[in-house]
Specification:
Blueprint lengths: L5 H14 L4 H14 L4 E2 L1 H11 L6 H11 L7 E2 H13 L2 H12 L6 E3 H19 L7 H12 L6 E3 H10 L1 H7 L1 H7 L1
Antiparallel strand pairs: 1-2, 3-4
The structure holds calcium ion (CA) (2 copies).
């Protein structure tokens, strides 16, 4: 923030208002908050985790935060810039269903090979349960293995035990229950 001229800052805000679902005023507000928390303009994984910790004080969001960090950090340099931050926030809060699902696919595809395996899905769901903590988990849906089974039964149409982006997008868009089971929207919307 400090070494950014006000003209450059203004240009960045205009550009990001064009590229996201936020207005210039909203981008400006987020920019101010981001700059306060990250005076050097970079959000580290540790700082990112601390934000999650505030929202989930009873659980352990470490694993989930590190998975989400991966997706926010688009150029994979280990830091989230304001631009990366606001774009991810725009997609996860105001994106179309398709944009949200694409984003979610990237989150679940931990090794970026273009497929979601059962192991990858188990990892994410386990991370969500750890984050929510014992008190908040919905009791009629307390079995992560069953949840993964349900998702695969619906989405894995060629039964090869992994989900391609096509299977994931087509199946999720047909079935709102799947979108709910992916559960990330709830988490983000509650924030
Ligand atoms: Ca980055
Ligand atoms: Ca994968």
């Amino acid at each position: 923030m400090g070494n950014k001229s006000s003209k450059a800052k203004r240009q960045l805000i205009v550009k990001l208002a064009e590229e996201t679902y936020f207005t210039e005023d909203e981008v400006k507000k987020w920019y101010t908050g981001f700059s306060k928390d990250c005076p050097n303009g970079r959000l580290t994984e540790q700082a990112f985790y601390k934000i999650y910790q505030q929202f989930f004080p009873k659980g352990n969001p470490k694993k989930f935060a590190s998975f989400v960090f991966r997706v926010f950090d688009e150029d994979k340099d280990g830091m989230i810039t304001f631009e990366e931050f606001i774009k991810a926030l725009s997609t996860t809060t105001r994106g179309t269903l398709e944009e949200k699902l694409l984003w979610t696919f990237k989150l679940y595809d931990l090794d970026n090979d273009g497929y979601i395996t059962r192991d990858e899905m188990n990892s994410i769901i386990d991370a969500i349960y750890q984050m929510l903590g014992p008190n908040i988990v919905d009791t009629n849906d307390d079995d992560p293995v069953k949840r993964v089974d349900m998702i695969f039964t619906h989405l894995d149409t060629n039964k090869d035990n992994k989900l391609s982006m096509d299977e994931f997008m087509v199946g999720s868009q047909q079935d709102p229950k799947i979108v709910a089971a992916l559960s990330l929207y709830n988490i983000h919307n509650n924030n």
